Structure formats: C-alpha cells, structure tokens
Amino acid sequence: MSLVIEEVRGTLAKKEWNSYVQENENSTVFHRYEWGEAVVATYGNEYIYIVAREDGDVVGILPLGRSKSLLFGDYLCSVPFGVYGGIVANNQAIADKIDDYACQLANSLKVDYLEVRNQNPSGYERPDRDIYVTFKKPILDTPDENLKAIPRKQRAVVRKGIKKELSFSISKDVDTFYRLYSESVRNLGTPVFSKELFRNLLRFFPQDSFIMSVYDQEKPVCAVLTLLFKDQVLPYYGGGGYSARSVHGNDFMYWKLMEWACTEGYKVFDFGRSKVDTGAYSFKKNWGFEPAPLSYEYHLVGDTSIPDKSPLNPRIKPLIEVWKRMPLSFTNLIGPYVSRSLG
Description:
Blueprint: E1 3-8, H1 11-23, H2 33-43, E2 46-54, E3 57-69, E4 73-78, E5 88-89, H3 92-109, E6 113-118, E7 128-129, E8 132-138, H4 143-149, H5 152-163, E9 167-171, H6 174-188, H7 195-204, E10 209-216, E11 219-229, E12 232-240, H8 243-246, H9 249-263, E13 268-275, H10 279-286, E14 291-293, E15 295-300, H11 317-324, H12 328-339
Parallel strand pairs: 4-6, 12-13
Antiparallel strand pairs: 1-2, 2-3, 3-4, 3-5, 6-15, 7-15, 8-13, 8-14, 9-10, 10-11, 11-12
Helix pairs in contact: 2-7, 5-9
C-alpha cells in the first residue's frame, strides 16, 4: 500500500474530508471543512487542507490556517479561532508522515512558527504551552438528573435564575448576540471578533449552530452561540452585560442549554477552553466539570521562542486594563482588526 500526502480543495474534497471527520472518533467540529470556509470568508486567510491517502482512501487529515499581522507575525495554525485542532489519522505512522509534511511546509513558507492545538500530547519533542484546559462532561438521561449533578452551591444559583422568571429563545439573531458578547469581552479587556465571523459560522453550519438568548422581561441580558457536533453540544462564544449578573442570567442560560441538549438526545456537554486559574476556569469547575489539560505545540521556524499572546503575559496586562475602560463603540470599531490575529 502506498501513502500519498497532498493538499486538497473543492466540492469533492469537502465531501471526502467531512466523511472522514464524521467517522473518526478523535475529530472535532473544528476539523470540519466548513470551519476553514468560515474563517476564509471572514478574514480572507489562506487555508490549507492536508490529506493522507492510502490506495485512494483518506486515512488522515490536518487543517491549517495561515495568519499574518504586524502584531503577531506570520504563522500557521491548526486551527485558527478553534480551541482544538491537530492531526487526525488512522494510526501513528500516518500521523508522523502528516506531521513531517506540515513542518516541511512551514519551513518552505518561511513562517515564524507552526502552532498545533492538540487535545492530547502528540509525543513529538517540541515546545508546548500548557496554560489551557478544557471542560467536558457526559449529559445524563433526564433534566432532573443533570440538575442534581450540579454541585449544591451552583445549583442554588441556577435555581435563583429560574425563580427570576427569565425566558430564552433559540434563533440566528446575530445582532442581539453581538451587542451582549462585545460588551462582555470589552469588560474582560479582550478585543472583540468581527461580527462577520459569527454570521459566517451560522451560515456554514446551518444545521449545527444556533444562538440562545436570555431575556429579563423583554430585555436581552446574555447570549451564547452554540455548535453541535456528533453527540456533543459546545457553547462556544457567550457573554452578557453587567445586568446579567444581577439576575443570574449566565447560570440560567447554561442550565437551559444543558436541559435542551438532554431532551434532544445529546451525550456530551463541552464547556470549552479556559486559562488555568481564571474566572471562567472557576465558573466551570463550580458546575462540577473537571479540567483536562490541552497541549498546544509549536514547530519554530523564524521565531526562536514560543509566542505569548495570552492575557497573562505581563506585557499585555497593562493594555488589557486600558481596553476595559474604552467606550464600547470604540472597541467594537477597532477590536475586529486587532482580534483577527488572536484567533
């Protein structure tokens, strides 16, 4: 049997690619062909789909996006704007060949580095960054079981949200979501992504994405853009204004999403990535989720050390404090230009 590694494009490639993603137990929603399409449609980035074939059959894949900016240089990433990525292959020998191809590609393109966002360590001896964890938990059979599985203190907070008689909707309402999300990330000192990114995610994942919005009376207080993949529910981009705290809006929202996922037959609630010892990290632990380390690995080409784009970087922290105090209209205007390199 002969192994061929190539870069692919087009309708047929998309069908083959997604068929492999659907069948492989180690793939994620970020490996789907449409993720690259959404990124390219939003930012115009170069996106590279690497496929390994054995006697014509797909036996491994690696999606790579290329980003260029004055702030953070020129680099390849698997995958941009996703929290999971990396090689998906039938066996380690095939994965090794794909990895060799990707490293040679990074060298030939003379990028600064190749970043691979693995869920688990690859086993390759290269620099890595271990500041991120992810939170996943099985969804139990009934809503009552899921509510009782939430630790007592957090369950009490959820019940407070329920008693506030909040309501929710499931829609594709990007405008309402964006108003709430952009305020939330500004308050954290983070540049907001382009509204077009969210529009494109909903467009390229029409059956596998939606927005849940929570209302206090008729006022929207928080919202989350959710992705669906196989038997998993991923509340991916979420946030709300200060008013969400007073009515426990976020607690109510994530409970209603978990309840919805249970009744719809989903099996895994993926609470997503957080930095260790941050507010988001503590919030997810309070729900009874246990952190699992993520392994982000780097093949350095032009750079001599791992880039640090994290808000925990002492050089970035002062900028975060300034950003928090800026008017929302201003951060919404310039944020998308800054954040395109942060994905």
